[in-house]
Design goal:
By secondary structure, the chain is α/β, with parallel strands linked by helices. It has one domain (about 5-205): Spore Coat Polysaccharide Biosynthesis Protein SpsA, Chain A. It has helices at about 25-30, 30-50, 85-100, 120-125, 165-175, 195-205, and strands spanning about 5-15, 55-60, 80, 105-110, 135, 145-150, 180-185. It has a 7-stranded mixed sheet, with helices on both faces. A hairpin with a 5-residue loop joins strand 5 (about 135) and strand 6 (about 145-150).
């Protein structure tokens, strides 16, 4: 099933600049290698989103410096700076912006998940035809994808972001609100050297 005509895809990203991306990963492998990994993940994210029938907005964490601007292939996507505040406020603002522009299904992702595929994104939009919310659990206790068909502000409040409690607390909020939730396959983000090693090992075994 293709995405609805009023679907929006929100992508949280950073300009690929040395020392400003994948800092946890850089602590284990060095800033230059971490930048190369980020550029690889950024390209993967573009590849899996390019064919999705949705209005695409890249929400950038900060303005670029003189080097390391977002690659030219992203020029067809709307680009905006993230709103101030913690991650929850940033995501809430991005969803609010999408719904204010006519979205009836909005999905948000980052650029850290090499296991994300175009069919997974299509599955997310299909789920929103019968559910109020869709979520892609991450192995670290967070999520790599969140989608909804209207804004539920409670999902972004009172969370300890970047911890292993985010998924559980988000699902608890959804249950309290009485939302029907569809869950996608669990995937692994690449946040640190152990995640990178696991990804490389999987890739070397010929798996996606």
């Amino acid at each position: 099933m293709s995405a609805p005509s009023t679907a929006h895809l929100l992508i949280f990203a950073r300009h690929p600049e040395l020392g400003r991306v994948k800092t946890r990963l850089a602590a284990g492998i060095g800033a230059e290698v971490a930048l190369a990994v980020y550029e690889e993940l950024l390209q993967h994210t573009y590849d899996v989103t390019a064919g999705v029938a949705a209005h695409k907005t890249v929400w950038l964490a900060e303005a670029p410096t003189t080097a390391g601007r977002l690659p030219a292939v992203w020029s067809s996507y709307e680009q905006r700076l993230q709103f101030p505040g913690d991650l929850g406020l940033k995501m809430q603002a991005a969803f609010s912006y999408a719904f204010s522009r006519g979205a009836t299904a909005a999905v948000i992702i980052g650029t850290d998940c090499p296991g994300l595929t175009a069919p997974t994104l299509q599955q997310a939009y299909a789920a929103l035809a019968t559910h109020e919310m869709v979520i892609g659990p991450a192995e670290d206790g967070g999520y790599y994808l969140l989608g909804m068909n209207e804004l539920y502000q409670d999902l972004f409040a009172n969370k300890s972001w970047s911890t292993d409690s985010v998924l559980a607390h988000t699902l608890a909020d959804a249950a309290r609100l009485g939302l029907r939730v569809a869950q996608l396959p669990t995937l692994r983000d690449v946040d640190d050297a152990a995640d990178l090693a696991a990804w490389r090992a999987t890739s070397n075994n010929g798996c996606s």
